[in-house]
Design goal:
The protein contains 6 helices and 7 strands; from the N terminus they run E-H-E-H-E-E-H-E-E-H-E-H-H. It has 195 residues and is α/β, with parallel strands linked by helices. It has one domain: Maf protein (Alpha-Beta Complex), CATH 3.90.950. Strands 1, 2, 3, 4, 5, 6 and 7 form a 7-stranded mixed sheet that branches. Strand 1, helix 1 and strand 2 form a beta-alpha-beta unit. Helix 3 packs antiparallel against helix 4. It starts with 5 loop residues before the first strand and ends in a 7-residue tail after the last helix. The mean pLDDT is 91.
């Protein structure tokens, strides 16, 4: 029987913590502080670059440990929707996403082994927004759920009433897919259970 290996997760996201817990992964948390200077106009290249940068940043402080990083971005109408820098920008993002009707969410994953070798995956899902009554939107913006979310929404939160996953894995939109993480572990040889 092989012993399970430990992992450093480069994210403070409770959703990502919950997923690793559900898989039985032993991990510690050391959040990355930046996405890095990636400026690619291609969403796949950009999200992969962000995940790699985060993983390398955390690996430099945790040398000799396995490090897992992930990054999620929202893309539609040839435009990236990052985390809003205020209520007005969040309002503009949500209006634009409603106008588009359909947009894509990309999540990039990077796992560095103990030698710093990178294993990477990017997956995507499509989201369709219906019209949000203006009074509901203003009530939502009055709170702070939007504050740390790409595209100013979380599909598992308030926005779930107006947005739905129409292609791909819902967990990709939430920020970490079990299917993708298991594939990454298999690619790299990371042993996350005691079996």
């Amino acid at each position: 029987m092989l012993s399970a290996q430990t992992l450093v997760l480069a994210s403070a996201s409770p959703r990502r913590h919950k997923l690793l817990d559900s898989l039985g992964v032993k991990f510690s948390v050391c959040p990355a502080h930046s996405d890095g200077p990636i400026v690619s106009a291609d969403p796949v290249a950009r999200v992969a670059g962000h995940a790699l940068h985060k993983a390398r940043e955390v690996f430099s402080a945790n040398s000799g440990e396995w490090v897992l990083a992930a990054d999620t971005l929202v893309y539609g109408g040839q435009q990236f929707f990052g985390k809003p820098n205020g209520q007005q920008q969040a309002r503009e993002m949500l209006h634009r996403l409603q106008e588009l009707g359909k947009h894509h969410v990309y999540t990039g994953y990077c796992l560095l082994d103990v030698h710093g070798r990178a294993f990477e995956i990017v997956d995507s899902a499509a989201v369709a927004f219906t019209s949000i009554p203006e009074v509901e939107l203003e009530n939502y913006l009055y709170g702070n759920e939007w504050a740390d979310k790409a595209g100013a929404y979380a599909i598992q939160g308030w926005a779930g009433e107006y947005a739905r996953c129409i292609e791909g894995d819902l967990d990709t939109i939430v920020g970490m897919s079990e299917v993708a993480v298991k594939k990454l572990f298999a690619m790299s040889g990371f042993q996350f259970t005691g079996e």
